[in-house]
């Protein structure tokens, strides 16, 4: 099931399948390592849901909700 990163719940893990957006926003995401194939774990959300803190490629990354909406992931089933 594909799900946008801004819709993830704390503790969910997924693999990036596609990154949408154009121009600067897409380039910024790619520069931060948000690329197809990377595994993402949602660590925290701010009280109002913005920003999000994720673990990707072994480091913590903070993304705004408006950036996270461009990232589509395949949700991994929890064990």
Description:
16% of the residues lie in helices and 41% in strands. It is of the alpha+beta class. It has one domain (2-75): Roll (SH3 type barrels). The mean pLDDT is 91.
In brief, what are we looking at here?
By secondary structure, the protein is α+β, with helices and mostly antiparallel strands. Helix content is 16%, strand content 41%.
Backbone structural class? alpha+beta
Number of domains: 1
| SSE pattern | EEHEEEHE
- According to CATH, the fold-level topology is SH3 type barrels
Percentage of residues in helical conformation: 10-25%
Mean pLDDT: 91
Query: From the coordinates shown, what is the CATH architecture?
Result: Roll
| Poorly predicted ranges | none
Spatial gap, N to C terminus: 16 Å
Number of strand elements:
6
Largest sheet: 6 strands, antiparallel
Q: In CATH, what is the homologous superfamily? A: Ferrous iron transport protein A (FeoA)
Topology:
Elements: E1 2-4, E2 13-19, H1 23-31, E3 39-45, E4 52-56, E5 59-63, H2 65-68, E6 71-75
Antiparallel strand pairs: 1-6, 2-3, 2-6, 3-4, 4-5
Key words describing this protein structure:
globular, 6 strands, six-stranded antiparallel beta sheet, 79 residues, alpha+beta, SH3 type barrels
């Amino acid at each position: 099931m594909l799900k946008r990163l801004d819709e993830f719940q704390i503790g969910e893990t997924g693999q990036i399948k596609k990154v949408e957006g154009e121009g600067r926003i897409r380039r910024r995401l790619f520069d931060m390592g948000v690329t197809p194939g990377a595994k993402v774990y949602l660590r925290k959300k701010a009280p109002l849901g913005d920003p999000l803190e994720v673990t990707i490629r072994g480091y913590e990354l903070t993304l705004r909700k408006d950036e996270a909406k461009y990232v589509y992931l395949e949700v991994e089933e929890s064990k």
